[in-house]
Amino acid sequence: MAWLVTGGAGYIGSHVVRAFLAEGIPVVVLDDLSSGHAEFVPPMVPFVRGDLLDGALLMDLFADHQIDGVVHVAGFKYAGVSVQRPLHTYEQNVTATATLLAAMETAGVARIVFSSSAAVYGTPHTDLVTEDTSKSPESPYGESKLIGEWLLRDQGIATGLQHTSLRYFNVVGSGALDLRDTSPHNLFPLVFTALREGRTPRINGNDYQTPDGTCVRDYIHVADLATSHVAAARRLAADEAIAPVYNLGSGDGVSVGQIMTTVSTVTGIDFEPDLGPRRAGDPDRIVASGELAARDLDWKMRHTLEDMVRSAWASEQASAAAAPQASAGLEDGEFVHSEA
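RE: above sequence
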């Protein structure tokens, strides 16, 4: 029996795939390659290029593979852009999730780990977020993730679906040289791109009520995140008690200023970041407690900030040195890799 990883060719999803394989658990990947990369999927892993909105494709996939559960990582993940594209965001994150759950119900697949987001909290009025902190999302993206959690909850009541949702803030680093964050909106890629192009990275505001005046946030290593996805899947597969939601948080956070200093140290590029204006609505500090996940999901911060930056920079350098790999030319529904 295998686990289906939706979005398994993306940055987070590909690390989840590697974590499952490291534990000897077979996986199948479904990805439309809208932001993922076919080369991120190991050759021995069955890979279907397709859209979660295609219910017929999902039914074929479940018929062709013995799927024990689903790790649902696929989605439109750009909170800022979601404000300009709300309908697209809801289609990709809500309608697609409902389509997946319907196909799972028909196929008799009753376990799912959902990649949610700390965006469900909006701007919390506490500097340490727990699972019980009030939910007040401030973007269609955050709203869509909260609706996804509701869909799982309601399917659980209606059909006995076993589920859990993992919430987290900023995912960084790399667990392998051939895997990297390619998002045009995330901090590390933005900083590395600026340095490669000879520009100075910028921070937004340095007068926050924090030790160095810059915002403090949770930054977690992608490999640590992936490990807890596997732990959640194992718990579901063993029919062990599991909470409906978990925060994967650091408990203390790091500042943007600390990140910039660490990037300079790791890359050997001496720079002082440019100072931009504060962004409206940016709180001084948002950090999540990972206590519940530490109890149940083997969650811990195994990597330091320097580890995060160093691994991300190494994968960035490896990518720049490697010949480009083409991921186009595949038809939807095509099995790119065959089973080993």
